[in-house]
Amino acid sequence: MHSVTHIPAGPRGDTFDETTTNRLAIVAAGGRVPTETHPAIAAEPIVLEIDHFNLYYGTKQALFDVTMNIARGKVTALIGPSGCGKSTLLRSVNRINDLISSVRIAGDMRLNGMSLYAPGVDVIELRKRMGMVFQKPNPFPMSIYENVVYPLRIDGETNRGVLDEVCERSLRGAALWEEVKDRLQENALTLSGGQQQRLCIARAIAAEPEVLLMDEPCSALDPIATTKIENLIAQLRGEYTILIVTHNMQQAARISDYTAFLYLGRLLEYGPTETIFQSPRLSETLDYVTGRFG
Amino acid sequence: MTDLHPRRTARRAQSSLLGQGEPMVWLTGGGLVIALLMIVGLLALIVVQGVTTLWPRPVVRLTLDDGRVVMGEITREESYRPTSVQLDALSPTSARRARAEMEANAGMLHRRLVRVGNFELTGDHFQWVDHVNVVLEERPEWAVVFERVAWGRFYGIPKAFLENGQPVAETAEEVWRRFMALHSTVVARRAQRRRLETRAIGAINARLESARLAMRAAEIRSGTASVEYETRRREYEQTAREVSHEFARISGEIAALNAENAKAQLVVQTGDGRDVTLGLGDIVRAYPANRLTAMGRLAVYLSRWWEFLADEPREANSEGGVFPALFGTAVMTLLMSLAVVPFGVMAALYLREYACGGPLLSAVRIAINNLAGVPSIVFGVFGLGFFCYLVGASLDELFFAAKLPNPTFGKGGLLWASLTLALLTLPVVIVATEEALAAVPNSMREGSYACGASRWQTIKRIVLPRAMPGIMTGMILAMARGAGEVAPLMLVGAVKLAPELPIDGSFPFLHLHRSFMHLGFHIYDLGFQSQNSEAAKPMVYTTTLLLIVLIFVLNVIAVQLRTRLRRKFASAVF
Hints:
The complex is a heterodimer of chains A (294) and B (574). By secondary structure, chain A is an alpha/beta fold. Chain A has helices spanning 23-28, 86-93, 123-128, 144-153, 160-173, 177-180, 193-206, 223-236, 249-255, 273-278, 283-289, and strands at 36-37, 46-57, 60-71, 75-79, 103-111, 114-115, 130-133, 211-215, 241-245, 258-263, 266-272. In chain A, helix 5 (160-173) crosses helix 7 and helix 7 packs parallel to helix 8. The radius of gyration of chain A is 20 Å and the shape is globular. Helix content of chain B is 63%, strand content 13%. Chain B contains 18 helices and 13 strands. Chain B starts with a helix and ends in a 5-residue tail after the last helix.
């Protein structure tokens, strides 16, 4: 856990000290701060709108009024210290959080204008429109081939030609085809960690998702595998909209077009990556990206 | 303070065991050693007794000082402290020797238990012989052990071979040669007779019974005055006439076979010089025990094992084989698994994958775990009360009314025994499956959900395959537990001697209502219900050995399966 004890703690509740200007202190005291959203984003075509989104685990609120638009075909990085809610936000997009029974939400998200949280939304259909890559590679205990075509299999696709084509396209897309094309029927668990993660990416793009969600995809990998994944993300940019959570500041700077800085469930600043890392509007963001806290 | 430290180190150094040896290592290790010794001792006892039982032993002839002659196999020896009554019964010379031996052996005398056989002559299968009484001990070359269809073993020396009552051979060697030449044909005829008795007569009995049931069903449906009943009655009488002809024909065949077998007879002289005539048809196996070479002994040993595994029991189960018990155990265990695995897996799936956690779920889990600890006889009582008397009786009234008052399903039987044991082993399967499901990493489920899979698709395609090793292990452990259970089976269908196997060639091939034999119950019956307890005791060990081997094999399969499947699902890097 990252300590924030050096921030002067204000009184709890919404009545914080008005004279405090440090947003971190305000947030730590439970107060609200406006999000600094850079105008560059408004110029982009939007694929996903997150609209005043709040999330609670039981009585504990994990996300506070997050509002942000995700640009189509771009890589958007979510950064922030541990426990800031970036993974929670990511997992809210494809409603994987629904599996936790204590989760409640307020606000909405819209994918290409369609509400994700409106009553009557078919969650299963919704998830098919997104792909997700997890922190630890989680290939299924079956062959490489079956792993990749899994999203099609559950849709009932049995046409061998279609499956073969999707398998090859996805594996090529995930830069894994050359390495595994001769052993597609082998168990996926025989692959190395980095290969497994690329296989998971291939699986995530097999169904041509509108958004690709990545939850710290490199945190369990060695540097070489990490480089390969980063190169892959760079390749996928443009074709897919990627929302990626990362702990690694350099990674965010290297691979993303836009960066959102979250702190204790609040979105503090959101703008083009270059600006966020070099001249952010908020001193708190600068402190974080230069490693002065967090 | 300065004073305290040196003293403390000194004390530690003195008690070096406490200091460096860690006494708890010795305590816990000792506990383990005792446990292991008990297991090894139990296994050694059963294996040694079970393996040696069927080995042919030499036949000795003991001449006693009162002129009696005892011939047979020595089964065991012991030292005992004789009472004064026993000492007074000895002859003067024996008493003198007995006193000398007792002085040398701290008041103990030595005696041997001889299997004397010849039950119809002596009224005994076994006889204790005091060492001091024996004046002559010899091993007659031509002493032959006869294992018979009835009356147990016979020990004697072949004297003559009779064909149609006329002696055709007079020396032991010649008699034995003729016996060997003819015995296999006689055995084949006996087997044919047995087939006729069971299959052919069984078939015509079944035919007559079905005609009677049709008549009875018509009577129940429309009364005795109806046309239908009258037709059925006439059909029944017609069948009865045909059947009696058929029966007479088969009886004739059997009588012919018997007569053919009765032509050959042996005259055998017992140890005390009496001549007895034995029909060849009554002899299962015979061997000249004292003339056998090592290979010959091995051949007898193996043939006995084959008989033990593949034949039906004789002589109130104390002789012959355990095949029906082995078969019954296997079929019952298989049916039990068919019943318990789907239910157990479904229940575990609901508990682990669907149910929301909470006090109710915990309560259900605790209840299931407690169910595993309920004494098995309780399940037997439940099976008897619920399955046999309630469900079975209702089934009888609905579908087998014509057979009443004879119960079909309203009594213990294979089906009810399997279901009772399924209930008994349900907790084992549920707990094992739940553990296997819990061991499937959540990341797998999330990965599947993220691909847009529904809950059931995730379970079917990801969770169940991954949990399969654990589920299989649970299933086989349940099978091992079920195969060894006896107490509930005594109430719901295991019997001492089942006339028919639960699976046979007559429609519908699997007879779920039949009573069956079971290895565990067979052991109980041999050990505690047998009249010839000395002969039955070694068979108890042999049967126990068989049961242990069966369960050991099941467990080995479980372990193998688990490691095989685990290797398949083991991750390469994490």
